[in-house]
């Protein structure tokens, strides 16, 4: 990769590694539904004008059903599950569990991508890594198990959304698609968030975290990611999936004083190894890249 691609790679890794820390800060004073609705509304306010300036919005015509479906499984569902899940587990564990996404995509694509011994080994390693993280980090804590379950369900929805984009929405320009899904998500979430507005004073830190989630972790991160794909190609851009959990862990440990256990490191290494093996192409081909805001 050239210098610009490396800069974009580092930028996306950070922008998709910090949401879990910011969510932890925001939900101290704001309800999860307000955090999610505010985040996507801010992103939509940025992404819709960008798509309009690029002239890509007309491409959404005739694709309302696909945009609504994707908005639900790509943004509304995962964002809510992750934000509510973080009420019960650490931000670092959240980031690590989401790293299992490539393994789940491989499982969903098993009919299209034949299983080889290497891919089977990768799937097994990834699932063992999840078992290590959940079994050793939240063992005996039913609320922790609930939170981890929410994160894993969110990750499954992310994987389903990636497959859906490939099969049903690959002809829609990315900026238009993201602008459409964030707008649809805002429309779906804001009515519910209106009934959960804070009644007590909200700290400046919580508002700042919410603003950063929308502007940086959603809108800016997606735009930077698409630029990265253009500079380095989808295969290399997809490697950011392995980098942002490291950022999430380092921030959680350094800023929130979250524990860094040997099981955490072991589980992450198993997941990364599993993702790498399970996504190895069976024939020379471009690697499908998960595209989502963390």
Automatic annotation (TrEMBL):
Transmembrane spans: 7-27, 33-52, 64-83, 89-110, 117-136, 142-165, 177-198, 204-225, 237-256, 262-279
Q: Know the name of this protein?
A: EamA-like transporter family protein
Kindly state which keywords UniProt assigns to this record, in alphabetical order.
Membrane, Transmembrane, Transmembrane helix
**Keyword field contains Transmembrane helix:** yes
What does the record say about its membrane topology? Answer: Multi-pass membrane protein
What SUPFAM superfamilies does the entry give?
Multidrug resistance efflux transporter EmrE (SSF103481)
Recorded GO CC terms: membrane
This protein's species is Asanoa ferruginea
Q: What family does this chain come from, according to its entry?
A: Belongs to the EamA transporter family.
Q: Where in the cell is it found?
A: Membrane
Carries keyword Transmembrane? yes
Q: Tell me the first and last residues of the signal peptide.
A: none
